[in-house]
Specification:
The structure is a single chain. By secondary structure, the chain is α/β, with parallel strands linked by helices. Helix content is 42%, strand content 15%. It is built from 11 helices and 8 strands. Strands 1, 2, 3, 4, 5, 6, 7 and 8 form an 8-stranded mixed beta sheet that branches. Helix 2 runs parallel beside helix 3.
Length: 296
């Protein structure tokens, strides 16, 4: 214990000192932001809510630290998670800090904006403020294989993004309109949380561009270069204690993460969402593609 603030203290006093030490609750937000599935649980409010609530219930709590490592994902889940964190921060009057690891991009940056201050490593990837939709089209492949698509729907708008029928200009216009709506919500969050600190014009800030931590600091997307332990000890003293919330991934989750993409572990007892395994595999490959966009 030579590197701890309690090293020179008699043992009978260590317990008393630790009981009085300020606490920083650490909430890990690592993985693709998505609804749960059999292959990967994703970051979503259902899985994270118990840990978020627990973070703000700690005794002698001085701050909540978000450790963010996410390439993004579902906009709705990004909004729900960030809103819950902000709601509890206001209710408990507790400051929130975000610490970016490898990447806080797109929805990952949305999560980081839930903090009052954002820190990153010089080599972290930050930004990608934008909205993207991707999918596959199998029309020509089906024709070559001689496969007939049988689809019956009520409502002339129900076939949007169906991968087995040709894409139409009207479908693209509808999707673009949806994306613009979501994009405006994202921009509103960044304006509210970072507006007074951004040094970039909105056209560049909201272009989907990504920056290293060093450049993100110059542009006002983050507040400093630093890591959780160093910044929190400077802020709250050498004896600050860290309470980490959530579970570490098990062996299967780690194997799936390496093979299919970064994921988070669902809260204890949360059931997997049933579905077609082909759909789940595609979802996992899309998660892998999200990480790969940032060289991870």
């Amino acid at each position: 214990m030579t590197d701890t603030p309690f090293a020179s203290m008699p043992k009978r006093l260590i317990g008393r000192a630790m009981r009085r030490a300020p606490v920083v609750a650490v909430l890990r937000l690592s993985g693709v932001i998505s609804a749960p599935s059999r292959i990967h649980s994703g970051l979503n409010l259902g899985a994270l809510a118990p840990h978020i609530e627990a973070a703000f219930r700690q005794r002698r709590l001085r701050a909540v630290a978000l450790v963010v490592n996410s390439p993004g994902g579902a906009a709705a889940q990004s909004s729900l998670i960030a809103r819950r964190i902000r709601s509890l921060a206001a209710e408990k009057e507790v400051p929130v800090f975000a610490f970016v690891e490898d990447v806080a991009a797109s929805g990952g940056y949305w999560l980081a904006c839930a903090a009052d201050e954002i820190y990153a490593d010089e080599s972290s990837i930050v930004g990608s403020i934008g909205v993207i939709a991707s999918g596959f089209g199998f029309v020509e492949m089906m024709a070559k294989l001689g496969v007939e698509r049988r689809l019956h729907a009520q409502g002339d708008k129900k076939t949007l993004l169906d991968p087995f029928i040709p894409e139409t200009p009207a479908d693209v216009r509808r999707l673009t309109a949806l994306q613009k709506d979501i994009f405006e919500s994202f921009k509103d969050v960044v304006r509210e949380r970072r507006g007074g600190k951004l040094t970039l014009g909105e056209r560049q800030a909201f272009s989907g561009e990504i920056w290293t931590g060093r450049k993100a600091l110059e542009h006002g997307l983050i507040d400093g270069i630093g890591d959780l332990r160093t910044v929190m000890r400077e802020r709250y003293g050498e004896d600050v204690r860290f309470k980490v919330l959530g579970r570490e991934p098990g062996l299967l989750s780690r194997v799936l993460r390496r093979r299919f993409g970064g994921t988070a572990v669902a809260a204890r007892g949360s059931p997997p969402v049933p579905g077609n395994w082909a759909d789940q595999l595609i979802s996992a490959l899309e998660a892998r593609a999200l990480w790969s966009r940032f060289g991870l």
